[in-house]
Amino acid sequence: MKEIMKEIMKEIMKRFATGLTTLSFAAALAAPALSYANGHEKAPLEIKVRVSEKGFFDEKGKPYGGKRLLQVPKDTMVKITFVFGEDLTSLAMGDTHQITVRAEDGWKQETSPLWMMNRESTVSFLAGEKGRMQYRAYCILECIGMEHLTNLLIQVV
User: Fold this and answer.
1) φ/ψ (deg, to 5) at 37
2) Which fold has domain 45-156?
3) Among 72, 110, 112, 131, which residue is least crowded by beta carbons within 10 Å?
4) 3-state DSSP assignment of residue 74
5) Is 152 exposed, middle or buried (0-12, 13-18, 19+ CB in 10 A)?
6) Is 25 in contact with 123 (CB distance < 8 Å)?
7) Contacts of 100 (CB under 8 A, 6+ apart)
């Protein structure tokens, strides 16, 4: 009888240890999501901007520029992915774009060159850091349509 009780206790402890390990692992995986949900840390704002000889466009194809600014909330980590968006029939299909995002105080970040074989590149920054309230994105390479790739204004709100 003592032997049977020992085996039962051994099995219970083994299952308890396995359950505890599984629960710990699940909690570690869920921690970032729970942190965002509780408001301790803001989730990054991820934005895609299409780049073509015609200018900068949102995911729905609406152009940025003029009075249409890209607005981002202050104190939010912003990840802007610039996507090479030249049409297959465009003369600019073989073109290369490289985008710089620059603040008024001289801070800047550049994408890697965007072209047919490298279609996306991302820049990340904390919106409003060090008092930066406006950024400008523009192409720094000579390209077809360069005059249309100077007008993406990013405003911190």
Assistant:
1) -65, -35
2) Immunoglobulin-like (2.60.40)
3) 131
4) coil
5) buried
6) no
7) 108, 109, 110, 111, 137, 138, 139, 140
- pTM above 0.85? no
> What are the distances in angstroms from CA 120 to CA 27, 35, 112, 144?
33, 29, 8, 18
Structure token digits, residue 20: 């505890």
Render pLDDT for 92-141 as a digit per residue (tens, 0 to 9): 677 899 999 999 999 999 999 999 899 999 999 999 999 999 999 999 99
CB 13 within 8 A of CB 5: no
* CA 79/CA 86 separation, integer angstroms: 22
Residues 6+ apart with CB under 8 A from 154: 69, 70, 71, 72, 78, 80, 101, 134, 135, 136, 137
- Taking 60 as the threshold, does the pLDDT of residue 33 lie above it? no
| Angle in degrees, CA 113, 121, 31, rounded to 5 | 160
